C-alpha cells in the first residue's frame, strides 16, 4: 500500500479488516482487464453486521452514514485483498449503494455520503466517483446498507 494511502488511513483511525469471505455462491471480486468489480459489502465490524434495520424507522441518517462508512472500509479491504496494494487503484469508477429504508424515506443520497466521503478522504482525487443510492425493502442479514464498487486498476 502506498505511504500516502497508509498515512490517510492512519490519520482517519482506520485499520483495514481482513476481507470478508463470500456468504453464498459468488466470488468477492472479479478482475477483468483493467477493471476490478467488488461484490456488495455490508457494514461488518468485528465480524458482525454493525448497523441493522430500516432507515426512517430503526436507523437515523447519521447511523446510516456510519453503516455506509463501514461498507466503504470493507470495500477497501476487499480491494487490498484483490490487488495486494491499494496504490494500484487508478480510480473508483462507481459505487452502487443500497439502503434498506421505509417507503417514505428519501435521504438515501445522504446516507451514501458516508461512503463517498470516506473513499475520497482515503484515496484523494482517484476516490471521486459516480454513484447510485437506491432504497430497498430489505438487505441480507438485515443490514441497513450494502455497497458494491467498480474500480479501474493499474
Automatic annotation (TrEMBL):
> Which residues constitute the signal peptide according to the record?
none
Instruction: Please give the PANTHER family that the UniProt record associates with this protein.
Output: ENDORIBONUCLEASE L-PSP_CHORISMATE MUTASE-LIKE DOMAIN-CONTAINING PROTEIN (PTHR43760:SF1), ENDORIBONUCLEASE-RELATED (PTHR43760)
| Endoribonuclease L-PSP/chorismate mutase-like domain segment(s) | 7-145
Q: What is this protein called?
A: Enamine deaminase RidA (YjgF/YER057c/UK114 family)
Q: This protein's superkingdom?
A: Bacteria
Pfam families, sorted: YjgF_endoribonc (PF14588)
